[in-house]
DNA sequence: AAAAAAT
């Protein structure tokens, strides 16, 4: 199977090939012809399955093929709208659109909150074909009448379940109400709650159905490991691990925003360059942290679950769960940040007694125990009692009325400096972790803290296509270090009994085409 | 229970 046999035109295939992809993933194989068909689509797919290319490629082709439309002012009209739950994801999707559309004349832009609205208005005025947006800012534009969607032909709701979880349903309905009724709708969701089904029923007209087996697990290329540890020794252990192995690009997840801030500060004190990323950070701080982490300037990125989905970093070697996530599914999303596109990765979880129940839930979900390894010097106190803080909500699927109206959280915190890095860096990084982290503050002041919204990379390397990445399929590799090495594996923390391996994910389970 | 998203 190849991209041109899916019906994509030469300029798209050329862009895809130049980005290093030759073989479509299962979801691409199914979604691309379905979208080219012009009908609606309901797709069950998570990030990391090649989903983004699955809709951006055929959308580009359709817009390129269909006769261009002009607005009253004579500029190109917005014909495709892609909504995503987070700003970072919106930026990434638009990068993909740009990368894949490199040889086409189509124009795209991204818009979300937390940054100035005027540049966005300017971009819209100059005329764009494709808009990628988060719901809030899009509504803002609609109310201010700075966006004209009267020529819209294609609508995509990406990570629709996440958007509903985040309380976007009302915003989405308000957007939908103002769109031209005759259009192609694509809905992507990792899960299918009753809410999603209702949304799909209302939105989609006899959609094609595509489902790719859930990645409930954990690519084979990710080696997972638990380090049992006392709750108050976690930070020390993390520092120890990073320094001992000289890890150079570590994504660390915490449960709370406050926890992320604290940990980043402490790591910095320990001589490790670290920044936190979460929803209370200013957009410029978020953008900067992500950019520095991606280009290797930053050794550690401490994140809340804002980064659990979607965020894609090439060849990210290490993910650490400093806290286990409250929702088992998020474990899968988190560790899915590593081992992407066939590369090997390592997912380490620091687990204290409080988190045993969460661990059990996770092992049940992924249908396998995670090997445990106690690190010498960090043996957990066997008499420690769990503190009954953590409870997991969310029953089987239908239930949780998790509605939360948006509420203002006050001004985002400005974390100090207005430094953004000047463009630099060759794009190479040492292959073996020799890179020394720069101390904080050593960077020259940059462009006044303007966030990068332009989707360009510092190093100018094409990479957007790596999102949802692995267009190409790679031979599965054995995870390295899958066996616990070192001292008493399995000590102290009762995990699930070893079972035979879980079934591999990644195969399509169901597909339907239909004409319209 | 936490997180995210418009000002």
UniProtKB/TrEMBL annotation:
User: What GO MF annotations does this protein's record show?
Assistant: helicase activity
Q: Where in the cell is it found?
A: Cytoplasm
What is the enzyme's main class?
hydrolase
According to UniProt, the reaction catalysed is: ATP + H2O = ADP + phosphate + H(+)
Q: Say if the entry is tagged with keyword Nucleotide-binding.
A: yes
Instruction: Describe the location of the DEAD-box RNA helicase Q domain by residue ranges.
Output: 1-29
Sorted alphabetically, which keywords does the UniProt record give? ATP-binding, Cytoplasm, Helicase, Hydrolase, Nucleotide-binding, Ribosome biogenesis
Q: Name one Pfam family in it.
A: DEAD
Q: Where is this motif: Q motif?
A: 1-29
- According to the entry, every stretch annotated as the Helicase C-terminal domain falls at 233-383
Cite the InterPro entries for this sequence: DEAD/DEAH_box_helicase_dom, DEAD/DEAH_RhlB, DEAD_box_RNA_helicase, DEAD_helicase_RhlE, Helicase_ATP-bd, Helicase_C-like, P-loop_NTPase, RNA-helicase_DEAD-box_CS
**Main location class:** cytoplasm
Basic and acidic residues: bias regions: 451-461
Q: Does the keyword Nucleus apply?
A: no
- Locate the compositionally biased regions of type Low complexity: 430-445
Q: Domain named Helicase ATP-binding: which ranges?
A: 32-210
HAMAP family for the chain: DEAD_helicase_RhlE
Name the family: Belongs to the DEAD box helicase family. RhlE subfamily.
Could you tell me what this protein does?
DEAD-box RNA helicase involved in ribosome assembly. Has RNA-dependent ATPase activity and unwinds double-stranded RNA.
Q: What is this protein called?
A: ATP-dependent RNA helicase RhlE
Q: Supply the source organism for this entry.
A: Paraburkholderia caffeinilytica
């Amino acid at each position: 199977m190849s991209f041109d046999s899916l019906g994509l035109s030469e300029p798209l295939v050329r862009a895809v090939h130049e980005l290093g992809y030759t073989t479509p993933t299962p979801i691409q194989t199914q979604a691309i012809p379905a979208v080219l068909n012009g009908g609606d689509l309901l797709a069950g797919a998570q990030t990391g399955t090649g989903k983004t290319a699955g809709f951006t490629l055929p959308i580009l082709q359709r817009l390129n093929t269909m006769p261009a439309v002009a607005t009253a002012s004579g500029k190109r009209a917005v014909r495709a709208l892609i909504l995503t739950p987070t700003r970072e994801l919106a930026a990434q999707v638009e990068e993909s659109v740009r990368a894949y559309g490199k040889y086409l004349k189509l124009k795209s832009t991204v818009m979300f909150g937390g940054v100035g609205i005027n540049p966005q208005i300017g971009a819209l005025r100059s005329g764009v074909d494709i808009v990628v947006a988060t719901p809030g800012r899009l509504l803002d534009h609609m109310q201010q009448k700075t966006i004209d969607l009267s020529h819209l032909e294609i609508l995509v709701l990406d990570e629709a379940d996440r958007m509903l979880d985040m309380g976007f349903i009302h915003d989405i309905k308000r957007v939908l109400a103002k769109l031209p009724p005759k259009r192609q709708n694509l809905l992507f969701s990792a899960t299918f709650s009753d809410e999603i089904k209702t949304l799909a029923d209302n939105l989609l007209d006899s959609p094609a159905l595509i489902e790719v087996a859930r990645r409930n697990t954990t690519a084979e290329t990710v080696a997972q490991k638990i380090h049992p540890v006392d709750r108050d020794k976690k930070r020390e252990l993390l520092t120890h691990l990073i320094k001992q192995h000289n890890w150079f690009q570590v994504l660390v997840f915490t449960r709370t925003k406050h926890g992320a801030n604290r940990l980043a500060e402490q790591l910095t004190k320990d001589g490790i360059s670290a920044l936190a990323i979460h929803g209370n950070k200013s957009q410029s701080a978020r953008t900067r942290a992500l950019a520095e982490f991606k280009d290797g300037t930053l050794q550690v990125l401490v994140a809340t679950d804002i980064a659990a989905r979607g965020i894609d970093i090439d060849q990210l070697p290490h993910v650490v769960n400093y806290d286990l996530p409250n929702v088992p599914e998020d474990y899968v999303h988190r560790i899915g940040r590593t081992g992407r596109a066939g590369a090997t990765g390592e997912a380490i979880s620091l687990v204290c007694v409080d988190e045993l129940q969460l661990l059990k839930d996770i092992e049940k979900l992924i249908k396998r125990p995670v090997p445990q390894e106690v690190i010498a010097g960090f043996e957990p106190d066997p008499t420690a009692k769990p503190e009954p803080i953590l409870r997991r909500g969310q029953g089987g699927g239908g239930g949780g009325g998790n509605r939360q109206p948006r509420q203002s959280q006050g001004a985002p915190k400005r974390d100090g400096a207005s430094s953004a890095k000047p463009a630099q860096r060759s794009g190479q990084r040492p292959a073996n972790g020799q890179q020394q982290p720069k101390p904080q503050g050593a960077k020259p002041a940059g462009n006044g803290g303007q966030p990068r919204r332009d989707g360009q990379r510092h190093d100018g390397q094409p990479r957007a296509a790596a999102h949802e990445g692995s267009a190409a399929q790679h031979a599965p590799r054995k995870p390295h270090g899958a066996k616990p090495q070192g001292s008493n594996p399995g000590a102290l923390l009762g995990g699930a009994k070893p079972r035979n391996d879980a079934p591999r994910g990644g195969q399509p389970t169901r597909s339907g085409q239909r004409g319209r």
